[in-house]
Amino acid sequence: MKxxxxxxxxxxxxxxxxxxxxxxxxxxxxxxxxxRAERDDGARVVEWNPQRGELDAAELEGHDxxxxxxxxxxxxxxxxxxxxxxxxxxxxxxxxxxxxxxxECANPPHTFxxxxxxxxxxxxxxxxxREESAAGGDFLAGVCRxxxxxxxxxxxxxxxxxxxxxxxxxxxxxxxxxxxxxxFKLGVGGKLGSGEQYMSWIAIDDAxxxxxxxxxxxxxxxxxxxxxxxxxxxxxxxxxxGRILGRPTLFTVPKxxxxxxxxxxxxxxxxxxxxxxxxxxxxxNFVFKYPELEGALRYLLRS
Length: 303
What we know:
By secondary structure, the chain is α/β, with parallel strands linked by helices. The chain contains 12 helices and 15 strands.
């Protein structure tokens, strides 16, 4: 297949591109700065600018699929009004632009996989969340609703659209796990708030495999939870990580301290509870390499 990937330098994209190439697929990377993004990985590079609405529809022609992963990082920096605007606009504008340009193609890609997040569901306690579950009402849930709706133009064109609702992607190379390893190794790791909030996680290898599964499985369309089948509470995650690193986990970060440190972001990320299940992945016979947290952490932190 000939596949376009946006966000190819991000946590998931940087693993997805070489994985797809290893499967024999040809990759075109859409980047915002072509001069800075050139690399010798065999991928073709095309410049686009979602903020200014700049993308030549002809660059989409001749491809079989688009995997759209680009977006402002959510868990970096405090949520000022400007940061929240960038979080929303980087997702909605980019998705809207791609969907609109797909409708201009004489022979558009047949598949459009657009990233979303389990933040779609909002803070839901211990409720089991499947793809048909209702959206939440907080800021991130609102962003996810708009993000997914921005792909409607492609769907109306007859393109198969998959909204990949990503959980917390665990990788030693970045993201939540990389940030937590150092304090835990120093013996100052611990649960956040009550520790009862659920975390829908997935190992980076399974996340990449799940996206490839969506690319090659025509049964999948609409929302798809990209999470492991066994979500855990923050307390369970804390205990597992401490045990694997051989460090105590006696510290607790109270809610008020998390809010002081991270502001609004704390309530929407580390303190929120989402117990999502990968119902549609399992229904299409996807097999997880790392369905249990402890096995995933031991693999990811093996070095």
